[in-house]
Design brief:
299 residues, alpha/beta, 11% strand, globular
Length: 299
Amino acid sequence: MRLSKFALPLAFSLALAGAAAAQEPVNEIEGVTVTPDKPLTPRERVTTFSEKVPGGQFPVWVRPICPLTLGLGVDKTTYVSARIRQLAEQTGLKYGGEGCRVNVIVLFSNEPEVLLTKLRKKRINLYGSTQRSKVNRFIEQDRAVRLITLTSEAPARGVSASAMMADVGSGAPEFSTSNPSRMRPMTFNTMDRMILVVDARLAEGLKIKTLGSYIAMSALTRPNQHMDQTGRDTIMSIFNSEGRTNAPIEDLTAWDEAYLKALYTVDPRQRLSAQIGGMVREIDKQLNPKSPAPKRQPA
């Protein structure tokens, strides 16, 4: 893996900052009892799960994934990065490979706000052209896991499947060329970089397997962190809307896997309403597969 122009000084700064590394291991926690919230319809679940780009769709990755995890022991950081890579490849995305440019950064810290403030003072530009107010909100959040995403618009008009998804591996969706219409906008939204910061104090007690799956799911779906998933069958329910440890789910659920498949199977060049409708149908197909019709026996 190649440390890009921002990742190399970032790693150096983390080594110098005493607040950067989590001192205690991430251990197991006893299960807690939660009260399920009002059930959502399938469309409501899809609509509220991921954060939409204002005026656009749910963004997706089309470039190869290249994760970097810092701030824990080597075994744990390696595990988290490997889990992101594993889930990305299961989804149909490519791993960038040795020497790739880092685009998913995971930082563990006992004092995230202190760490992020130090990095900003060192003028390490993690956020591209993201609005300063949005960066400030990200730094000042008090959550077990906070994230910020850099997105861009890719042209949708006349883009073939092979050109648009050139960096996506086997299992990726095959999209046909189409001109923009009422159902298909001029552009679609892609994720270019994501920074996830884990407050090791608030995540203390969780298994690294559970936390790794939560981080990997977050990295690929850009979850809506304001939506409380308490009591729902998703890995995202391990933290409530205030970012506190919440539920005993230990890994991705069947719904999580179906959602991921839907997000990366349904054509992202559609308008949001069509994207959501296609995802609802795909999730239902994954969770409720129809048995093949029995063959007719010869008379």
